[in-house]
Every structure is written in structure tokens, then in C-alpha cells.
Amino acid sequence: QVQLVESGGGLVQPGGSLRLSCAASGFTFSRYAMYWYRQAPGKEREWVAGIGGAGVTKSYADSVQGRFTISRDNAKNTVHLQMNSLKPEDTAVYYCKAQGPSAYWGQGTQVTVSS
């Protein structure tokens, strides 16, 4: 049974940091590229960051470049998103996605940036 379980969301003040995690099971993790997406209220889901199966290739949306860092630990089947210098516009539900022979989504974790 495939599972992607996000954690680490919460309420943080502008300028603060959060580290999201996504724990994967039920598939060969290292064969899958991993992505983070987010969806703010009333908006479409948007891509945030991606990382290749080996953890070498990384890419970021312009809106988070230089503030967010994606990483993965293939020994632990986890992917992380370190988010620094958070802004109110980063408020959204954050989802992880596994993309390989199939595509899988997690259930999301809420991030709220507010003073």
C-alpha cells in the first residue's frame, strides 16, 4: 500500500522557518522524483520544488528560490522541504508528490505564515 505522509506544518511568524517532511512507503522510493506543491485558498495547486531520485538534480519555483531547500534521504524514504524567510504569501496546504512509473500524492500539511 502506497503512502505519502507529510508533517511539519504549523503557524509561524513572517521571517520564520519550518521544515516539512514527507515519509514514503509502499514503492521503490529511489526510483521516483519527489516534488512539493502547495495550494492556497481559492488558488490552483502550484509546483514549489523538485528533486531527482538520486538527490542531485533540484529545481525551485521562482517564488521560493533562495529561501526553500529540498532534500531527500533514500535510506529513510523521506523528502524534506526547509523553508526559511517565510512570507504571508507562503501560506498554503503543502503536498508532496512522487513521480515515477506512477504518481502518488500525500494528504497535505497546513502552513500558515502570520503575525
Helix-strand topology string? EEEEEEEEEEE
Secondary structure class reads mainly beta
Q: Specify the overall morphology.
A: globular
Total number of helical segments? 0
Terminal Cα separation, in Å? 40 Å
Unreliably modeled segments: none
Helix content: under 10%
How much is the radius of gyration in Å? 13 Å
Describe this structure in words.
Helices cover 0% and strands 52% of the residues. With 115 residues, it is mainly β. The strands form two sheets. Strands 2, 4, 5, 6, 9, 10 and 11 form a seven-stranded mixed beta sheet that branches. Strand 4 (33-39) and strand 5 form a beta hairpin. The chain starts with a strand and ends with a strand.
Summarize, please.
With 115 residues, the chain is mostly beta strands.
List keywords for this structure.
115 residues, mainly beta, seven-stranded mixed beta sheet, 11 strands, 0% helix, 52% strand, globular
